[in-house]
């Protein structure tokens, strides 16, 4: 009887071990599909705008994106290799715009609430210097040798309603010697000067005067206005093309862009775009201009040959600042109300991802 029980136990134990062993077969397991390089993420108001919402961006060049975060008085620095914010630098009140110097050594922050511009050292990510200017500065650009800064200053306070507090005053473009930190001169322009950029030949500066509905043209050699061009309602920013032929001006209250012929310095066309356009930027090959339409949360793409919009690219909430990489492969757009950057692939004109930054990002620049 005992011998029979022992045999039964051995058989039972053998069957138990066999049932627990892993099974093998010739069936192939299907892997989850991955996004294609041009696939855009789903766009909706609930997107958390994190660096995980990225398409195939493994071939992104090594450079850094800086954003001026007006709602928390910081500048975010994004490493485009890791697609993440690596540092938030505390700066003065209400940083509105950022711009890298041509030599790449500094990024200057325009602090509209502090009436100043602050330099961030791009090698240490730390504040290097602060220069006081007039009331309510907005944008800054530089001479090609990185020695001189030009700052658009309103000289009057903007209140929440969008009207000016008190009597209107002409704004100025402050010319600053960066080595000394001294104001060399002030160039009187229109009411509420906002965006400004220099032409590729470094001869002229175009200034969008938001409250006088015109653009001032400054001769850099004399630091004097040589022409004032009526463009339309509420110009915000200007975008000269690299071939020197045109300057595109966003008209916030007309939902359009005015095109200035750079030779005659006259408006030759007005192009309808999305709602409430803010910043614009021309591609280095002179083919396209990208416009951030804050009121419709998208980016308009203008074909310069046809002078018409060929695409509207959905972004996140409150599209504002625009910059394009030197290789022309990517457009970066700040989303003020979503605290993020949208990354656009120019080969497909689709958003391939979003990156979280500080609160209320406005201006944006690239250090390459």
If you had to describe this structure to a student in words, what would you say it looks like?
Mean pLDDT is 87; it is low at 1-52. The protein has one helix spanning 2-20; strands at residues 64-69, 74-79, 84-90, 95-100, 106-111, 116-121, 126-132, 137-142, 148-153, 170-177, 182-191, 193-198, 204-209, 214-219, 224-230, 235-240, 246-251, 256-261, 266-272, 277-282, 288-293, 298-303, 308-314, 319-324, 330-335, 340-345, 350-356, 361-367. Helices cover 5% and strands 49% of the residues. The chain has a four-stranded antiparallel β-sheet with strand order 3-2-1-28, with no helix packed on it. A four-stranded antiparallel β-sheet has the order 4-5-6-7, with no helix packed on it. A four-stranded antiparallel β-sheet has the order 8-9-10-11, with no helix packed on it. The termini are far apart. It has a single domain (58-367), classed as YVTN repeat-like/Quinoprotein amine dehydrogenase (Methylamine Dehydrogenase, Chain H, 7 Propeller), CATH 2.130.10.10. The protein is mainly β.
Task: Lay out the secondary structure.
Layout: H1 2-20, E1 64-69, E2 74-79, E3 84-90, E4 95-100, E5 106-111, E6 116-121, E7 126-132, E8 137-142, E9 148-153, E10 170-177, E11 182-191, E12 193-198, E13 204-209, E14 214-219, E15 224-230, E16 235-240, E17 246-251, E18 256-261, E19 266-272, E20 277-282, E21 288-293, E22 298-303, E23 308-314, E24 319-324, E25 330-335, E26 340-345, E27 350-356, E28 361-367
Antiparallel strand pairs: 1-2, 1-28, 2-3, 4-5, 5-6, 6-7, 8-9, 9-10, 10-11, 12-13, 13-14, 14-15, 16-17, 17-18, 18-19, 20-21, 21-22, 22-23, 24-25, 25-26, 26-27
């Amino acid at each position: 009887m005992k011998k029979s029980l022992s045999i039964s136990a051995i058989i039972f134990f053998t069957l138990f071990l066999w049932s627990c062993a892993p099974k093998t077969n010739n069936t192939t397991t299907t892997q989850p599909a991955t996004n294609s390089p041009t696939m855009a993420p789903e766009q909706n108001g609930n997107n958390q705008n994190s660096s995980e919402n990225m398409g195939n961006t493994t071939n992104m060049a090594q450079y850094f994106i800086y954003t001026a975060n007006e709602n928390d008085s910081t500048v975010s620095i994004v490493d485009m290799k890791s697609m993440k914010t690596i540092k938030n630098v505390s700066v003065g009140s209400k940083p509105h715009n950022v711009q890298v110097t041509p030599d790449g050594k500094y990024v200057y922050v325009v602090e509209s609430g502090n009436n100043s511009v602050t330099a961030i050292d791009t090698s240490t990510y730390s504040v290097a210097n602060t220069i006081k200017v007039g009331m309510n500065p907005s944008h800054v650009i530089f001479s090609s040798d990185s020695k001189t800064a030009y700052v658009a200053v309103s000289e009057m306070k903007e209140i929440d309603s969008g009207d000016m507090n008190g009597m209107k005053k002409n704004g100025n473009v402050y010319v600053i010697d960066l080595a000394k930190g001294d104001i060399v001169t002030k160039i009187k322009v229109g009411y509420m000067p906002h965006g400004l950029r220099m032409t590729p030949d470094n001869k002229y500066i175009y200034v969008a005067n938001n409250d006088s509905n015109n653009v001032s043209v400054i001769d850099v050699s004399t630091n004097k206005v040589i022409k004032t061009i009526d463009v339309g309602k509420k110009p915000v920013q200007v975008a000269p093309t690299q071939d020197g032929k045109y300057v595109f001006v966003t008209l916030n209250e007309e939902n359009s862009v005015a095109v200035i012929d750079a030779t005659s310095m006259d408006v030759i066309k007005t192009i309808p775009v999305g709602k409430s356009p803010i910043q614009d930027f021309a591609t280095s090959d002179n083919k396209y201009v990208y416009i951030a339409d804050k009121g419709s949360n998208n980016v308009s793409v203008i074909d310069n040959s046809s002078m018409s919009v060929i695409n509207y690219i959905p972004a996140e909430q409150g599209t504002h600042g625009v910059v394009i990489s030197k290789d022309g492969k990517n457009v970066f757009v700040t989303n003020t109300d979503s605290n993020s950057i949208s990354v656009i692939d120019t080969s497909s004109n689709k958003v391939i991802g979003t990156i979280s930054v500080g609160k209320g990002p406005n201006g944006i620049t690239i250090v390459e």
